[in-house]
Amino acid sequence: MKLLPGKLRLALVLMISSIALLLVFQYVWLKKVYQEERGLLQKDATVLFKDVVYGLQDSIIQRGIDFSGDTQIPKFTMKLHPPGMPGHPERVMRSDTVEGLSKVQVFITSTEEGDIQTIDRRQLSTVVTQAQKMTDSLHGNFTFTFKDDSLRLDEIRRAYKAALANAGISLPFELFRLTMGDTLADRPGIATPLFPAGFPPEYVYAANIHPYQGYLYRQVAPQAVFSLILVALTSLSFWFIFRSLRQQQRLTELKNDFISNVTHELKTPIATVSVAIEALRNFNAMQNPQLTREYLDISKNELGRLTLLVDKVLKMAIFEQQALAFQREHLDLKTLVQEVLNSMKLQFEQVQAQVDLREEGESFPVYGDRTHLLSVVYNLVDNALKYSPENPEITLSLIDKGQEVSLAVCDNGIGIAPAYRRRVYERFFRVPSGDVHNTKGHGLGLSYVAEVVQRHDGRILLESEEGAGSCFTVYFPKDGQAD
Which of 147, 165, 305, 400 has a C-alpha 20 to 30 A away from that of 281? Predict the structure, then answer.
């Protein structure tokens, strides 16, 4: 069924629309993945920074703890945990005074209660926790010395950089230390919350990672590559489908052109034979042996043309099914060329063509099918004759190239435009002209030639200049050199 141009346009619009929607979907999906990766980076940066800050704060506390058990300090008590809490023994702080307090002595088993107003309960709990980490036993005394100690930014920077590296995050960052109550102004990048630290805590700390986009792009690179491959495969599939539709449409047009040209060529020999038979029957040509022989020769030649045309069509069908068997034999390409030239002598004389055969070498042996190689030579010479102006000049060159034998057929014809040089070997293709019947042909000759040459392990080349002629050169393995 012939595809109309309107249907092709509709198919193209649908394909482009599908690819566009796929691109939009991939963009939305990749944007979502990017935002998720940014959220994960924000979370990791915050957790790592918190661990670093509080880890350094714990080290400050541990440096202030002493297990020497100085019992000469006057005592003032405070219970840290409610009595009877499962898993938590009662812990009581003792000190001599509230104002100017410098040391606290902890007694694990004491139950005396009191009040300390200038020391934060959570700070004392942190001290006890760190003391437990430093000793295997909860019994005994330790002394903790309070100092106005804050975290150093260079220590935070080194520790945070190492933590990020261990997590596979190698990104630049900047640190901020603000006094309690201050806020961090908006900055480009990924900023952590403010964490109070030090003992006692007088400052808050934060980190800001910037730039970070390159890291996120690397994280989403696998998804982006997958999206690119998906879009590329989809586009390639659509392109092959559309190309097949175009080829189907073009093939339909070429077949219609082929039918038109073949019909024209079939009518010509049939009409000629009919006229000859009519002359023999109605004009007493049978009484003139010479005239009878002439009419019979004309009929024979026209029937030969008709047979050749039908034979080409049948051979191309067999080639397409790949069922053709060659009857290979040892041949001389020069002999085949001369045989073709002799058979076409009458055609050359009718158009006053000048045909020149040149040779470079002593012998031109090939191994192939005689019938098909004769057809190759005939088609090349016939094309040179058909597409040349008045008084054609055709040159055939046989060259022995060592391992190959080449035959070049050159003419001074109309030439072939560069846009059509690759397509002349396509089945049914003919170079467009104003009148499809201006030059008789059916678009099978060069396609047939290319198939035969390829089946003989040869190759064919075309050199042409529009308005100056064409030169087809075929190469065959020299007999004894073919695989």
Answer: 305
